[in-house]
Amino acid sequence: MPFDLTRTEAAAYAACCVLVVLLGWRVLRSDGGAAQAVAPAAARTTTASGGASVSAAPARETSATVHVVGAVRRAGVYRLRAGQRVQDAIARAGGATAHADLQAINLAAKVTDGQQVVVPRKGRAGVAAPAAGAATEGGGGAAPSSGPVNLNSATAEQLDTLDGVGPATAQKILEFRQQHGGFSSVDDLAQIAGIGPKKLESLRAQVTA
Predict the structure, then answer these.
(1) What is the pLDDT of residue 178?
(2) Best label site of 52, 86, 105, 171, fewest CB within 10 Å?
(3) Among the listed residues 189, 208, 192, 191, the one whose alpha carbon sits nearest the alpha carbon of residue 200
(4) Is 46 exposed, middle or buried (CB count within 10 Å of its CB: 0-12, 13-18, 19+)?
């Protein structure tokens, strides 16, 4: 049956309803804020545990591959331990020949990966070339070649640095290149006077066509 409420009782009842609604709204709002605060914290925890944001330390090189040419017994490409010296690279190439000018290079310099070590003959300048693309000290000029000498583009000076090739043979190589339109392979060197089978084999590791 219907309840008979006085005006005062009705007002009190309405006030209670409003208070309940306000309390419920504040509780819901507090829960939503807590959820938003937890989400970034959880994301940070996931990133740290997953290791996605942790940068790994770069791997340290343990070896260096170098190209040894010039006045050595076995010119070629050799792998050395990181931190070894130019003198170690020359030793791997069979040692220097009797014509080598070891005073012209720094035997104590550390080798680097991709480096070309040129052992000059007496009376000629030589360098221990840096890795390909490295600039020369002081910023002037181009870096020395870091690979075999190309028979189709080399100058007389570059050919003259090869073990077993003197100024006369270097000139013959240039003349052959001009007369025949270039070298199709290293074997074409056998057609040049003064280059026999033994010298040709020693040049294979030093040149390319």
Answers:
(1) 83
(2) 52
(3) 189
(4) exposed
Amino acid at the residue 37: A
What is the per-residue pLDDT for 71?
Answer: 84
Q: What SS3 string covers 45-70?
A: HHHHHHCCCCCCCCCCCCEEEEEEEE
**Cα angle at 130 between 182 and 159, to 5 degrees?**
25
First to last CA, the chain: 113
Paired tokens of 179? 């007369």
Long-range contacts of 72-77 (CB under 8 A, 24+ apart): 72/96, 72/97, 72/100, 72/119, 72/163, 73/97, 74/205, 75/163, 75/202, 75/205, 75/206, 76/205, 77/205
Alpha-carbon span 128 to 136, nearest angstrom: 11
Beta strands 149-150 and 128-129: pairing type? unpaired
Contacts for 84 with CB less than 8 Å, ≥ 6 apart: 64, 110, 111
> Does the CA dihedral 142-144-147-151 come out positive or negative?
positive
- Which residues contact residue 120 at a Cβ distance below 8 angstroms, ignoring those fewer than 6 apart? 70, 71, 100, 101, 104, 105, 126, 161
pTM above 0.85, yes or no: no
Q: Which two tokens stand for residue 7?
A: 């005006």
